[in-house]
């Protein structure tokens, strides 16, 4: 698939993000998207063909592979990248709504349509909460589906139509585990960045509201 749309989306959101948000965009684009396209995708490209069991019973190997890899790592990562980036569309749509509203009324309604305040602040905070939630959900999903983040060299399978317990071997387990750990680490980093930006915006907005009340009170 072409990742041009996701790249354009992240570039568009970058214009309306805070400094922490721009770091998040850089991490997603460089350490997740580019690593996925350049390296990770090729490592799992032939995972089914390279999965071998020490038996030639028809159907046994396919059933065992489906049991240990219910969803392809690479497809699940692609879905994760798309899903965690989608909430950023809320911010883009909100800014577009502001710009269209100004155009419709033919007057300046906002200091800057991309300035994070008022309704756009709420939209931005919701997008951060959604991104963080999706990241956590996918990490839990990875952990549950694959019994942790380790890739074993040998797995034992006794599922029918296998006549008995057979040994199955996963190719390049060490290399795969390194990339899994790297992508999990970058996902955790994105969660930390999202929570940091969320805390920063809430703190900044709280200070702003407090100062307004303080000035109004003393006036």
TrEMBL record:
<keyword id="KW-1003">Cell membrane</keyword>
<feature type="transmembrane region" description="Helical">
    <location>
        <begin position="21"/>
        <end position="39"/>
    </location>
</feature>
<keyword id="KW-0303">Gap junction</keyword>
<keyword id="KW-0472">Membrane</keyword>
<dbReference type="GO" id="GO:0007267">
    <property type="term" value="P:cell-cell signaling"/>
</dbReference>
<dbReference type="InterPro" id="IPR038359">
    <property type="entry name" value="Connexin_N_sf"/>
</dbReference>
<feature type="domain" description="Connexin cysteine-rich">
    <location>
        <begin position="134"/>
        <end position="201"/>
    </location>
</feature>
<comment type="subunit">
    <text>A connexon is composed of a hexamer of connexins.</text>
</comment>
<keyword id="KW-0812">Transmembrane</keyword>
<protein>
    <recommendedName>
        <fullName>Gap junction protein</fullName>
    </recommendedName>
</protein>
<feature type="transmembrane region" description="Helical">
    <location>
        <begin position="177"/>
        <end position="203"/>
    </location>
</feature>
<feature type="transmembrane region" description="Helical">
    <location>
        <begin position="118"/>
        <end position="143"/>
    </location>
</feature>
<dbReference type="InterPro" id="IPR017990">
    <property type="entry name" value="Connexin_CS"/>
</dbReference>
<dbReference type="Pfam" id="PF00029">
    <property type="entry name" value="Connexin"/>
</dbReference>
<dbReference type="InterPro" id="IPR000500">
    <property type="entry name" value="Connexin"/>
</dbReference>
<dbReference type="InterPro" id="IPR013092">
    <property type="entry name" value="Connexin_N"/>
</dbReference>
<feature type="domain" description="Connexin N-terminal">
    <location>
        <begin position="42"/>
        <end position="75"/>
    </location>
</feature>
<keyword id="KW-1133">Transmembrane helix</keyword>
<keyword id="KW-0965">Cell junction</keyword>
<dbReference type="GO" id="GO:0005922">
    <property type="term" value="C:connexin complex"/>
</dbReference>
<dbReference type="InterPro" id="IPR019570">
    <property type="entry name" value="Connexin_CCC"/>
</dbReference>
<comment type="similarity">
    <text>Belongs to the connexin family.</text>
</comment>
<comment type="function">
    <text>One gap junction consists of a cluster of closely packed pairs of transmembrane channels, the connexons, through which materials of low MW diffuse from one cell to a neighboring cell.</text>
</comment>
<dbReference type="GO" id="GO:0005243">
    <property type="term" value="F:gap junction channel activity"/>
</dbReference>
<feature type="transmembrane region" description="Helical">
    <location>
        <begin position="77"/>
        <end position="97"/>
    </location>
</feature>
């Amino acid at each position: 698939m072409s990742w041009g749309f996701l790249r354009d989306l992240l570039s568009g959101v970058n214009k309306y993000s805070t400094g922490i948000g721009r770091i998040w965009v850089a991490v997603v684009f460089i350490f997740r998207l580019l690593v996925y396209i350049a390296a990770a995708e090729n490592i799992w490209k032939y995972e089914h063909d390279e999965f071998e069991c020490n038996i030639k019973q028809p159907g046994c190997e396919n059933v065992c592979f489906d049991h240990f890899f219910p969803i392809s790592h690479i497809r699940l990562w692609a879905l994760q990248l798309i899903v965690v980036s989608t909430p950023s569309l809320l911010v883009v749509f909100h800014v577009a709504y502001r710009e269209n509203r100004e155009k419709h009324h033919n007057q300046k309604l906002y200091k800057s349509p991309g300035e994070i305040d008022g309704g756009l602040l709420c939209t931005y905070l919701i997008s951060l909460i959604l991104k963080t939630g999706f990241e956590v959900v996918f990490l839990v999903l990875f952990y549950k589906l694959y019994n942790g983040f380790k890739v074993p060299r040998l797995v034992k399978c006794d599922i029918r139509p296998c006549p008995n317990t057979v040994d199955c071997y996963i190719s390049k387990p060490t290399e795969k585990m390194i990339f899994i750990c790297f992508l999990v680490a970058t996902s955790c980093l994105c969660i930390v960045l999202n929570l940091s930006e969320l805390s920063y915006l809430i703190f900044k907005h709280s200070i702003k509201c407090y100062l307004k009340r303080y000035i109004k009170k003393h006036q």
